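Fold this complex.
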Amino acid sequence: MALTTAPEQRLRAVERTAFAGVFTRETTLFRRVWRSTTFGSVVEPTINLIAFGFGFGYLVANVQGIPYVQFIGTGTVAAAVLFSSVFAGMFDTYVKRHYMKTYDGILATPVDVPELFLAEATWIAVKSGIYGCAPLLVAMVFGLPPSWGMLAIPFIGFLTGLGFAFMGMWFSGIVPSIDSFSYVQSALVTPLLLLSGIFFPLTGFPEWLQKLAELNPLYHCVQLVRHACFGWELTQDVVNVLVLVVFACLMAFLAIRALSGKLID
Amino acid sequence: MTASPSVPPPDVALSLRGVVKTFGDLRAVDGLDLEVRAGTCLGLLGPNGAGKSTTMRMLTGQAMATEGSIEVLGFDIPRQSKQARARMGVVPQRENLDEELTVRQNLTVWSTLLRVPRRERGAAVDRALRAAQLVDRADSRVSTLSGGMRRRLLIARALVHGPSLVLLDEPTVGLDPQVRGDIWTLIDRLRTEGVTVLMSTHYIEEAERLCDDIAVVSHGRVIARGTPSSLVTEHAGVEALEVYGPPSRLQDVEDLVSPLGFSTRRTGPSVSVLRAEALPLHVVDRIADGVRRPANLEDVFVLLTGERLEE
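Structure:
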């Protein structure tokens, strides 16, 4: 008679319960700090939008056939998404790992490194998707006509925010100290912002710089947001989405690998 | 002696065999063998840097052994460390509570992380609040709690899911004696409930009071193992004769007993002669100013390692 061995308890790479545990911690904390977080994420892009809208709007009436205030309003959505994801990924992750030792505690519960950071990045992405809508509402006050495509904007913000949250987490795992983030901000975040078509179209840039912009995930986010507001361009938008998906996957891989190395001896 | 082959071996809650952990050139854990019976409290006694914390981290899969095998609650580590972690509670040496949250919120979050079923979470949190004696502070923010309350919460957080194994890394380090007593009560209750406890400490009194069994750890290795009293009797005898005096006097005492094969240990202004119960009378007469005291675990530790535990 053949002996039957009990099947080994298989665990999925990402378990719903583990994900939910980390997510609960984030939402519980958010209930305490939502005012300050939301203020920063919403007010800064709004001020940008109003300043540029009035400042340049006075000089420039239309950009690519769109009133400038609407051009900058839709672009600022991407800036809001970037700010609420990459900095949360960088600073919060660094502080929780290095100073608060939060992750040492969580990893002693049945949560593995990929689950931990997938849950945290997802939460950041959800917030980014929501905060990204704030400039849109402001732009609507300034005359941006509503459209059905706008319903896609939280999802565009989510996808973009996921990639940039993981990018921030990756940096938090490779920088030698928290001061190094100022280099990241100057050398990477600012160029990404300027080379994305948020504030001005890139058509005035040399061709090589325009080609470079196509490697910028934020550029693809800006494209998607404008198309959502003013009309989809199917083939191009499929490419835009694909770029953001590939970006998020690559950053997730790099972030989880770097942070595993820091958290598991 | 008492063990007979017909008695089945007691359940083993965790075992480490030949475990080595290197960090570069440093061998933090160097061939560690350890077995803990289910339902007992084992103390890892050793100075800072002996490899206690690294050993604890290997049990949860937060550090990977370079060599050797580890089994926790029947699960192979690190392969099945997640299943093991679901059944154990871990109290870290460095506090990492969520300061911004209330006591109850901290416990609720942890009950989710530790997979307490949704319906049972409220009851589990209430139980933990009672265990930590924090019922009336349930809705206070952690940042407003005293050091002792925070430590009680840190322990209660690790017990919220009713673990069968609890790891405590230096549970009372840095606490004042009164608070230390509260923590000891909490740990002692675990033992009476049949929970297996592995505790690292460098406080002799803590080890003596709480542990069924002690493993003396030095340089990443277990160098002695036994009940507190058997370790003392075996290595340091029954009594020590402690002599206070200037260095020259202490030197005289050492010169007097060493040729007779007695061990001594210096503690600042005094020297202790171990196994004093066996000293010949003519020697005792010459150190009549000595004070007899029971031998203790610290004597054992110093004798075995040449190191001191507490600064």
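Chain A has a mean pLDDT of 90.
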